[in-house]
Specification:
Blueprint (H helix, E strand, L loop, with lengths): L5 E9 L9 E9 L9 E3 L8 E3 L6 E3 L7 E3 L13 E3 L5 E7 L4 H6 L9 H8 L6 H15 L5 E6 L4 E6 L5 E5 L5 E4 L16 E3 L3 H7 L11 H5 L4 H18 L15 E2 L7 H8 L16 H4 L10 E10 L2 E7 L9 E4 L7 H4 L10 H14 L1 H29 L5 H34 L14
């Protein structure tokens, strides 16, 4: 089976009592193996009385689709030769999903339950699940049934949330997975390795697992611990790659939310679930997704030595195609999007109770076009990084200004929303999304123009005559 380009992400999950505003959050940087991988963003409509078979362009997985499907936001690849890769969205029942966080099982468990070549893979997961679920837990259960029937082609971590619960599901082998409900007062950071730890098989309220997983582990003598049942220990890996590519990202996310706790960035024992030292804001989540070991010697853009700056893989990368934060509280459902390198981009809020998105998000040309949101933010990132020290403060001011504006705009829209009927509200929020896009586009284009104008004075191809000559 061919290797797809979507295989490196960082995820954050936050329970409602751990967040500043009482919302649940799931968030992820969708990273690829290449820097230029355009993404679209639009609304998939409801479907009724459908008779259709889904066939994956990636691995020919073939599934008969349900006749009825919910409306949902979708973030597919612009080039779909390899598959849809819808990745993340919120459906009309205000259930959010992000798929996937690529994870990898060890050779011992894969020997006895290998991956299934034409099983469920990342390219298909959101498409096959999000339109058909009415809660976060139902998402885990629905995907679990697909894995039981078709098998899994990959190791994947999948995020689900509704206004009350946040779930994280790790699919490790061809047919085995576990899922954990993130405690309301806790958060989790995941980074391309199996992270879920102890499973309580007497607690089906907070854990879900594949049928026969206990018997599978016992039959093949796969549990390395003298006591307990730790999914990470049994199914996960513990390699040099983990210690340089994966665990440092978890370390840094926890460092920002639990700054008083000293941990080793290469530790194999970083906890998956943590209680934060203070309530987590939307901006805190953005800060993590934008981060590159800021204010440490490991920052690739910092002043450390070359060995330290290249020691660990950062969270925000040039190959982050789509950074998203899915925010749910009561009837509020907002999907925050950042294209380009998240470190330099603004997160744009979208009310997901909408029937369309702006053309600048729906249509993505193959080559640079500043009318396209994807290309606009890719260009901004390229310009900022080209003269990072000269541009970074201006860029931070731009981000903060838009973040403040977005909070005020959302507050204003939500104050007006109760005036509209259920039927009118979708049209109203669709129109507000357009206003938000227009403001962000104008602000970003102005910022880009200012940087380019300033940058003309920074060329190395300049010459000043020495008066002594």
């Amino acid at each position: 089976m061919k290797q797809h380009k979507h295989a490196a992400c960082t995820s954050i999950l936050v329970g409602k009592k751990a967040s500043l505003d009482g919302a649940t959050y799931i968030a992820r940087n969708e990273d690829n193996y290449v820097a230029n991988w355009p993404k679209k963003f639009f609304v998939q409509p409801q479907v009724h009385n459908r008779k259709e078979t889904y066939v994956s362009p990636y691995n020919n997985l073939t599934v008969q689709l349900p006749s009825e499907g919910l409306r949902y936001t979708s973030s597919p690849d612009a080039n779909q030769d390899e598959g849809l890769y819808e990745e993340d969205g919120i459906n009309e029942k205000n259930v959010a999903m992000s798929a996937t966080e690529s994870v990898f099982a060890n050779e011992k468990v894969l020997a006895y339950d290998p991956l299934v070549e034409n099983g469920v893979a990342e390219d298909s997961i959101t498409t096959l699940v999000l339109p058909y679920i009415d809660s976060a837990r139902a998402g885990v259960e629905y995907l679990g049934k697909l894995i039981a029937k078709f098998g899994s082609a990959e190791g994947n971590g999948v995020l689900f949330s509704d206004k009350n619960e946040v779930w994280y599901m790790e699919i490790a082998t061809g047919h085995h997975f576990v899922a954990i409900r993130i405690p309301d007062d806790c958060y989790a950071v995941a980074a391309n390795q199996i992270g879920i730890e102890d499973i309580d098989f007497d607690d089906s309220k907070n854990y879900i697992w594949s049928s026969g997983i206990e018997e599978f582990v016992e039959k093949y003598n796969l549990n390395p611990d003298f006591s307990g049942w730790n999914f990470r220990h049994i199914f996960g890996t513990d390699t040099k790659k983990d210690r340089h590519y994966n665990t440092p990202r978890v370390w840094y996310g926890q460092k920002l939310l639990n700054p008083s706790i000293e941990q080793d960035p290469e530790s194999s024992d970083l906890p998956f679930i943590r209680k934060p030292e203070k309530k987590i804001s939307l901006e805190d989540i953005q800060r993590i997704l934008k981060s590159h070991y800021n204010e440490t010697k490991f920052d690739p853009l910092g002043s450390g030595n070359e060995e330290d700056k290249n020691r660990y893989r950062a969270i925000s990368l040039s190959r982050t195609a789509n950074s998203h934060i899915l925010q749910l509280k009561d009837s509020r459902a907002i999907e925050w999007k950042a294209y380009g390198i998240p470190s330099f981009s603004a997160y744009v809020p979208f009310f997901t109770n909408a029937n369309d998105t702006d053309e600048s998000y729906r249509i993505v040309p193959e080559k640079l076009d500043l009318k396209s949101a994807y290309w606009l933010y890719e260009t901004l990132a390229f310009v900022v990084e080209s003269h990072y020290q000269a541009f970074v403060e201006d860029n931070l001011d731009y981000q903060i200004k838009l973040s403040k504006w977005a909070r005020a705009k959302i507050h204003s829209v939500e104050n007006e929303a109760p005036k509209y009927s259920v039927e009118q509200l979708t049209e109203y929020l669709t129109s507000k999304n357009k206003e938000i896009i227009e403001h962000f586009d104008k602000a970003t284009q102005n910022h880009l123009a200012d940087l380019v104008t300033k940058g003309t004075e920074l060329s190395r191809l300049t010459f000043k005559m020495d008066p002594n000559l």
